[in-house]
Design goal:
This protein is α+β, with helices and mostly antiparallel strands and 225 residues long. The chain has a domain of 156 residues: 60s Ribosomal Protein L30, Chain: A. The chain is 26% helix and 21% strand. It has four helices and nine strands, in the order αβαβββββαβαββ. The protein has a nine-stranded mixed β-sheet, with helices on both faces. α4 links the parallel β7 and β8. α2 packs across α3 and α3 packs across α4. The longest helix is centred in the last third of the chain and has 23 residues.
């Protein structure tokens, strides 16, 4: 491996390791992020740096589980609106966490910190990495946000699945889907492929640990570095 390639590999490896503790903003299928919010999250900018009129990423009233057994994985941070509302859903993944599904026992709190990653419910063809036309608006908005970043800003693209199917099957499918998203950003939006790294994580990092088959676990997640 060349020295530049080794450096890039190490940088993206550090990004993947940092995923153990994330605060994720989830956009379900049909929810389109604002490009400024994408740039803010992937660029690591604090919520206070947002321009007037930006979405309330760092100021969303949210719910966390008050009681329950400790689990490995994400802790759901549920906005005041229902999950099917227009707003995205914010989900935190501390080192150890508890999970609450919508409607579960929770306490209200305010979050002023900006999320560190965003996830899109990108729609693909069944059992394939083909990006459906309905998903393009999400990816187009993501691309516009990446273009607002500096030319050296790197982005990690993670493919995730739910628990349906074998480990190997899900790992392969998630890798192909992450690679498909990377290629879309390159071919349609002209983003430099050297800035993008696509990895497949299969079903190893669900957003909803308590429900590994939840559709929210099928996602493409993005993190800046």
């Amino acid at each position: 491996m060349t020295r530049p390639g080794l450096i890039a590999s190490l940088l993206f490896g550090a990004l993947a390791a940092a995923a153990a503790a994330q605060d994720v903003l989830l956009y379900r299928a049909g929810q389109t992020p604002d490009a400024r919010d994408v740039a803010r999250i992937l660029g690591g900018k604090p919520a206070e740096a947002a321009a007037p009129g930006d979405a309330e990423l760092g100021r969303t009233r949210s719910l966390r589980e008050a009681d329950g057994p400790a689990t490995r994985g994400f802790k759901l941070v549920q906005p005041a609106t229902r999950p099917d509302a227009a707003r995205p859903e914010r989900i935190a993944r501390p080192a150890t966490g508890k999970v609450v599904r919508p409607g579960g026992t929770a306490t209200a709190r305010n979050d002023d910190a900006a999320p560190t990653a965003l996830a899109l419910g990108v729609q693909f063809g069944f059992d394939s990495a083909e990006i459906l036309p309905s998903a393009r608006a999400q990816l187009d908005a993501l691309a516009e946000g990446i273009k607002l970043l500096g030319p050296d800003q790197r982005v990690l693209i993670e493919g995730h699945t739910d628990a349906t199917g074998s480990d190997d099957y899900n790992l392969s499918l998630s890798q192909r889907r992450a690679a498909s998203v990377k290629q879309y950003l390159i071919s349609v939006h002209g983003i430099d492929g050297a800035r993008l790294e696509a990895v497949g994580l299969g079903k190893t990092r669900p957003l909803y640990v308590a429900d590994p088959f939840a559709p929210e676990n099928r996602r493409v997640q993005f993190q800046g570095g």
